[in-house]
């Protein structure tokens, strides 16, 4: 089995992330190809694209958000990402069970979480401020108990919004999203949201990850997605053209036949990255991109 050095893996990931050479590409296509963009900070996706694309115009991103072709939502690792509408529709069903299990460790004092979720989604058929959703569900259920991760000072909406199929509603502000978000149900904002098959979603998630960040181990895929390896295997089993190799530590690497593997001596120019850029969080062993001495 072929062995890939750390330097080869570094250049492969940088190439796929357009960090060796900027791409001439529309932002919408780039967001899909890059596996989504970290969006904890509203400006981060714009900076991530500026550093990766030639002739980048932030107005193109604003327009795609207004046209509902790009959306901001809680996805991989339970964190905010900017993704294409199609990827959201495919990926959220694949991630839902893990997100639900993670956040329902905070037990609601009374009322079924699924009943409260249905009430939240019915109320959020139009964009609703965070405070309005909190107050709406507070009338349906008392606060969470102290037995979970959420304190009594928090509320049902704080828990449910972490996994619910809702997206951040854009506003006419710089970077398209305000500091205090409003939410809207995905099925009201996007055509086809909530109809995707979970297994098909897992396959799409795995394929996109390998295209954007491979070659990679099962542990890398789990780190990026926030899903356990046994769930990810269900997606991997649906892909019949997986290419396998090993890293210098003997770990099995997975990839797709189309994945770029540039010359390891390809120059890597300095690049400005936004806070929590996806390339820094996409692997279990992160020294592929940044040595420990520089972290």
Give a written overview of the molecule.
There is one protein chain. With about 300 residues, this protein is of the alpha+beta class. About 40% of the residues lie in helices and about 10% in strands. It has a three-stranded mixed beta sheet with strand order 1-8-9.
* Count of DSSP-assigned helices: 12
Biggest sheet: strand arrangement? 1-8-9
The ordered string of helix (H) and strand (E) elements is: EHHEHHEEHHEHHEEHHHHEE
Q: What is the approximate shape?
A: globular
The gyration radius over C-alpha positions equals 20 Å
> What can be said about the biggest beta sheet?
3 strands, mixed
Residue share in helices?
Answer: 25-40%
State the separation between the terminal residues, measured CA to CA: 32 Å
**What structural class do helix, strand and pairing data support?**
alpha+beta
Keywords:
globular; 3-stranded mixed sheet; alpha+beta; 3-stranded antiparallel sheet
How is this fold's topology laid out?
Layout: E1 3-4, H1 6-16, H2 27-33, E2 37-38, H3 44-50, H4 58-66, E3 70-74, E4 80-84, H5 85-103, H6 113-123, E5 128-129, H7 130-138, H8 156-160, E6 166-169, E7 182-185, H9 186-189, H10 198-213, H11 218-225, H12 229-236, E8 243-247, E9 252-255
Helix pairs in contact: 5-10, 10-12
